Recover the amino acids of this structure.
């Protein structure tokens, strides 16, 4: 199965999960997984959330993200991944003046 993000409409979400600012995303979802090709704009953040029934892998394509993971701060740069297992909490910020482009996969567990 090929997922062509160029054929998926980009949607802007403001203040994602209680964060601040714009998150632009092209998403694919079914009963098993959510796959996102997204851009977090400069100065924007997602809100703190806990993964229940799923986990999340975020691969940074370009830019730099500041991740707050279980109370720790991690800087993730292009070519690196952030992983948030089920039962753990995180949010991310773009504290730079450049877009943060990333690819995220959120698989469902124990359906």
């Amino acid at each position: 199965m090929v997922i062509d993000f160029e054929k998926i409409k980009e949607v802007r979400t403001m203040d994602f999960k209680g964060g601040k600012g714009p998150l632009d995303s092209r998403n694919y979802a079914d009963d098993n997984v959510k796959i996102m090709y997204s851009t977090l704009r400069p100065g924007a953040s997602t809100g703190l959330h806990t993964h229940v029934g799923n986990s999340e892998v975020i691969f940074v394509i370009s830019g730099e993200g500041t991740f707050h993971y279980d109370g720790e701060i991690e800087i993730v740069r292009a070519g690196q991944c952030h992983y948030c297992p089920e039962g753990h909490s995180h949010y991310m910020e773009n504290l730079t003046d450049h877009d943060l482009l990333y690819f995220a996969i959120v698989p469902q567990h124990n359906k």
